[in-house]
Give the backbone structure.
Amino acid sequence: TAPRVLAAGLPRDRFRVAVGVLGPATGAAADGLRAAGAAVHPVPVRHLLDVGGVRSLRRVVRGANPAVVHAFGPEAARLSRLV
């Protein structure tokens, strides 16, 4: 998918890449990102009003302190606005 290609293709000498996954960070896509040197963070958000999940997402984003957030998909975009 496009986010995976973008995250894997960014030069590591210029960018620190971290990916948040809504739900468990398992499977071939997550493994491929880790192999490419990206940090993969599972964020257990079940739905938009999941207060605990949104709090976890906020913690991950604050810890990563990103300059840019790319949200892929409508649910991820809505959640990123809350953070």
About this structure: The radius of gyration is 12 Å. The first helix runs from residue 2 to 9. The beta strands are 18-22, 39-43. The chain has a mean pLDDT of 81.
